[in-house]
């Protein structure tokens, strides 16, 4: 049995405008049996071109590159290679960049200064669809969330309205539309509209799916 190719090698596109940084990062990645840099780029535009011609699973992009930044490249990559995971590499412990990176679809944010410690773990986490953030970034995210709560802003992650949540709970508990209408003092028609909205918003099919979702969300006891 040959050992030259790992059965589940993660194919990586590496983009950074500093050749020295690229070499250092490549050394870190290529040391691992399951990671392989298959393409290198010196800027964001080149990264997109490489993504078109190479099969890649993961793109490791420097945030600040000429022509197209890593953030712009990340947005573009989503359409060129849907499903490719993205990690941002940065010199800067900068909260603004962090939020932009997450908005651009990056699943991780790694500081170059500690890349030798964090990068490999970040690559593997990205492939498991788990976010990877350095400790300072986690603190920034929590602080940002607490500020929003304090300022009375609804967290944008809030998928359901409070009313929809009430309807979901009652549906999951087995109440009919008529019973729910009576309990919430709304019309049956309104209940049905809420149910349709719930199915649509959550991408679910039927009452059973809604019940499972309600259990996962902690609205009802299993």
From TrEMBL:
Record-given protein name: Response regulator transcription factor
Protein keywords: DNA-binding, Phosphoprotein, Transcription, Transcription regulation
Domain HTH luxR-type: 153-218
Pfam families: GerE, Response_reg
GTP-binding found in the keyword field: no
Record has Repeat as a keyword: no
Organism name: Streptomyces prasinosporus
SUPFAM superfamilies attached to this UniProt entry: C-terminal effector domain of the bipartite response regulators, CheY-like
Residue positions where 4-aspartylphosphate is found in the record: 62
Residues annotated as domain Response regulatory: 11-127
